[in-house]
Design a protein that fits this description.
Helix content: under 10%
Low-confidence stretches: none
Largest sheet: 6 strands, mixed
Number of strands: 26
Strand order of the largest sheet: 1-2-23-22-21-20
Mean pLDDT: 96
Order of helices and strands: EHHEHEEEEEEEEEEEHEEEEEEEEEEEEE
Shape: globular
């Protein structure tokens, strides 16, 4: 189905409150609507279409969204609101974008975000539960063997490890730990601040590299790996606890040669809540979920545009045809000109 593009008059949006307010209320005419704030976004997107490739009667796709070249499959995690309903690993066919299988893993108690690891494994962020610690775990989709890499901060429980990325040059693992496990009733009360960490899987060295967040969530490196972007989704705590005065912000940090972070700054603030899953495209533009859709900014934080849809989206991934949205009970393929960075493995 063809998707229309609305090009925004920025001067009118700035001066005319009614016009600016109207932009916030635009709903897709069918399943999607492109809103362009910059002519570069029109060029980036090209001709746009929207296709629901799969739909189930339960929330089978919620987080992760990882393409693994060795199996030619996409891996996601399902949604839950209770410990009685364990989170599944969902496998998606990368040629049809349809559900292949979905299952629980006995050693991966409530998996959430993740990333590809050495092209053959998935590195999962595992929330844990009231008795099981939150961990980083390697999972082999061929053998179904799971191996824990990290289970505490020097003996202190993580709260709920949320998302993770690997820096290829040295193999270091960077991840966020937030309090959503507690807010959702899955984890005990936190005993650590909500922070960003760096872990060296060769030496075992672990350290906090950034604090001062409400809820650090998605994270992603720039294409040259000199910048780390971290989304703070403090706007939402519990499922019904929303507060627009809390962060809905993407921060940028310089990655130091010593493996630390410096020069914290605001990269972007999302007008539409809330920032969660985050990826960069081949041009280095920063994309994040924004509630019912996804939003793009350039590498300087200039707003480029949005893809609004008629369903909630928690994560997404770039695929050869464009963007695949993980929309809880649906997979929505946005056909467009956006392309994945080479590290995504396509």
């Amino acid at each position: 189905m063809h998707v229309d593009t609305l090009s925004v008059n920025l001067l009118q949006a700035a001066a005319n409150y009614s016009y600016g307010s109207f932009l916030g209320t635009i709903q897709p005419k069918s399943s999607a609507q492109v809103i362009s704030y910059d002519a570069r976004f029109n060029d980036l997107m090209g001709n746009v279409s929207a296709t629901v490739t799969d739909q189930q009667d339960w929330d089978f796709v919620h987080e992760a969204g990882i393409y693994l070249p060795s199996t030619r499959s996409i891996y996601a995690t399902s949604q839950t609101t209770t410990l009685d309903d364990p989170i599944n690993i969902t496998v998606i066919d990368s040629s049809t974008y349809k559900l292949t299988s979905s299952f629980t893993h006995p050693q991966l108690r409530m998996p959430n975000g993740g990333t590809a690891y050495n092209d053959t494994h998935i590195l999962f962020c595992v929330f844990g539960d009231l008795d099981t610690p939150s961990t980083l775990a390697l999972w082999d989709p061929v053998t179904n063997i799971s191996t824990p890499l990290l289970s505490s901060f020097y003996g202190v429980n993580f709260s709920s490890i949320n998302d993770v990325r690997v820096k290829p040059s040295d193999g270091s693992i960077w991840f966020t730990d937030d309090w959503y496990g507690k807010y959702e009733g899955l984890r005990p009360p936190p005993v650590l601040p909500a922070q960003v960490y760096r872990f060296d899987p060769v030496t075992g060295q672990l350290r906090a590299v950034a604090d001062g967040f409400d809820q650090p969530n998605g994270l992603e490196f720039s294409t040259d790996y000199k910048t780390l972007y971290v989304g703070d989704s403090g706007y939402v705590h519990a499922p019904k606890d929303f507060n627009a005065t809390r962060p809905n912000t993407i921060y940028a940090f310089d990655v130091t040669e010593e493996g630390g972070l410096s020069n914290r700054r605001v990269h972007a603030f999302g007008a539409r809540p809330f920032v969660d899953g985050m990826h960069l495209d081949a041009r280095g533009n920063v994309w994040s979920t924004s509630g019912m859709g996804i939003t793009a900014w350039d590498k300087n934080g200039v707003l480029l545009g949005e893809i609004r849809v008629d369903m909630n989206v928690n994560n997404f991934l770039f695929v050869p045809e464009g963007v695949l949205l993980l929309a809880f009970s649906k997979l929505l393929l946005i056909g467009c000109g956006v392309r994945a960075r080479k590290e995504e493995g396509w």
